[in-house]
Amino acid sequence: MTTSVRAGTARDLADTGLSEPDYEVLSTLVERPGTTSTLHEQAAKMGWSRSRLSRHASRMEARGLIARAPDPADGRGCLLSLTAAGRAALRDATPTHLESVRRRFADRLDADDLRDLLRIAGKLDDGDTSPVSG
Amino acid sequence: MTTSVRAGTARDLADTGLSEPDYEVLSTLVERPGTTSTLHEQAAKMGWSRSRLSRHASRMEARGLIARAPDPADGRGCLLSLTAAGRAALRDATPTHLESVRRRFADRLDADDLRDLLRIAGKLDDGDTSPVSG
DNA sequence: CCTAGAATGATGACATGTCAACGACTTCGC
DNA sequence: GCGAAGTCGTTGACATGTCATCATTCTAGG
Questions:
Q1: What is the pLDDT of residue A2?
Q2: Which among B11, B12, B24, B47 counts the fewest CB atoms within 10 Å?
Q3: Is the CB of A45 under 7 A from strand D?
Q4: What is the nearest CA distance from B102 to chain A, expressed in angstroms?
């Protein structure tokens, strides 16, 4: 079911020229002061590995959606920031995406559904990540 | 939540040397007469694209888990079949995988949870796959 | 028989993601 | 200050998946 919903929203997003990871990066970055963030912080905020974000940032940088700059406060770090093109792409995609999510997800569930879903999610996400011992 | 459960079962499976796609292919193939199937049929049965299965079959073939042979009944087709190694890998992985799924999923949900989850899944999977129009 | 069109599986070009390094840099304890 | 240890972002090597396209081969209609 997750698959079905995601496939739908991803398809809708694709029409705007952004993938879901693109959208996540842009929408998380735009919430930052100066629409700028350290790669590390950004990755942490998104729950991504630094490696993953570094790779995706490279692709998005090549497409002109974001820019990289050295972090003046930490010689190891780099700052990611939205470009004008990135801001524009996000602005174009947001209404479509929100509408898509609403139509494919939110509108289909009532309050009971959401409550049950959260309850179940809580049980499944819970606790141990250790492998099967036997 | 799906992500969390899948990550866990994938990790458990990895300990047996198989990925989740590997396991899917092997477990679907073993149900076939002669543990053999056309790539096309196999893909349809699994809900995969031919392309995807072709690619994955190549990787699994390289690892000796399955074998390809020309289809005597259709010059375009090819037959995928389990090798002894593939059968052994599946035999080794199955108990671990079932235990893993049970522990990470089934054991955590009661009858009500399952009922609710199916109800919600039904609503989300439902119907239209068309893009957002406006 | 013969040809137009459909189906099959493979593949090039990419997008996405993981993991284990690595070099550069910072920090901590002394 | 200085060296050990940790952190940062990047990268090579791969696994996985998509899409469009291709050569083959099959099939249906004449």
A1: 64
A2: B47
A3: no
A4: 10
